[in-house]
Design a protein that fits this description.
single chain, alpha+beta, 3-stranded antiparallel sheet, 9 helices, globular
Length: 230
């Protein structure tokens, strides 16, 4: 959709696809599905994105809005402004968790996180992915990815088919992520609304209470209704 350093002309809201933000070398730094957007740096006053935005599903659609129109909508609607700023904070937390996965955990934990994040954003339990794609996103060797996927499959967490991975035991995958997954998703549920497929979602959402400018808790998800009107 746009490359790193390119002037942002539009912001994009995925409907039934996934957008990956990538550094040089295709290493993935953040992910957005129908819960989020890309091009959000424009809201903070940056007319260029530091990352490349790539659609990583074979099918799907997005909504787009001109950056100037988005900024005008944000200026006219304090609630929309709050929602988008909260989303940017959540994305920053997601990036921090990814950094932790790369710095402190084994490749196996990073792969478990990668699978969980995509599982949250697809309609069912099948994820379309090649081993090389996962390796590129994580900056890992393809052979290491293949070995880890075999371990996860042998333990009954996933089932691998050519170009497809079935999530069979999500709870155990969250354990395998070893703390590198969950905080950003919990923040989203606490501030913006229902999200993801975690079985302990309702238990953790109360850990991060948030308020809007009027002092009321924000619990509803507003991206889709607003972006459709836009």
């Amino acid at each position: 959709m746009f490359d790193a350093g390119e002037v942002l002309e539009h912001a994009y809201f995925p409907i039934d696809t996934i957008v990956s933000l990538e550094q040089t070398g295709r290493i993935e730094v953040a992910l957005a599905g129908r819960e989020g957007m890309s091009g959000w740096t424009a809201i903070a006053g940056f007319c260029r994105s530091p990352y490349r935005a790539m659609v990583c599903c074979r099918d799907g659609s997005l909504l787009k809005i001109e950056v100037n129109a988005l900024l005008a909508a944000v200026a006219a609607n304090p609630r929309l402004s709050t929602i988008l700023w909260q989303y940017m904070v959540i994305t920053a937390v997601q990036m921090a968790e990814g950094l932790g996965a790369h710095s402190h955990h084994r490749v196996e934990a990073a792969i478990a996180r990668w699978l969980l994040m995509r599982h949250d954003r697809v309609g069912g339990d099948w994820i379309e992915a090649q081993h090389q794609e996962i390796a590129d996103c994580l900056g890992a060797r393809r052979a290491s990815v293949t070995d880890c996927l075999h371990i996860l499959e042998g333990d009954g967490h996933i089932r691998c088919r050519r170009g497809r991975i079935l999530i069979r035991n999500r709870d155990d995958l969250e354990t395998r992520a070893n703390g590198a997954y969950g905080t950003a998703e919990t923040l989203y549920r606490a501030s913006l609304g229902a999200f993801g497929k975690s079985s302990n979602a309702s238990e953790r959402a109360t850990e991060y209470p948030t308020v809007d400018p009027a002092g009321q808790r924000q619990r509803e998800y507003a991206f889709n209704s607003w972006s459709t009107r836009a």
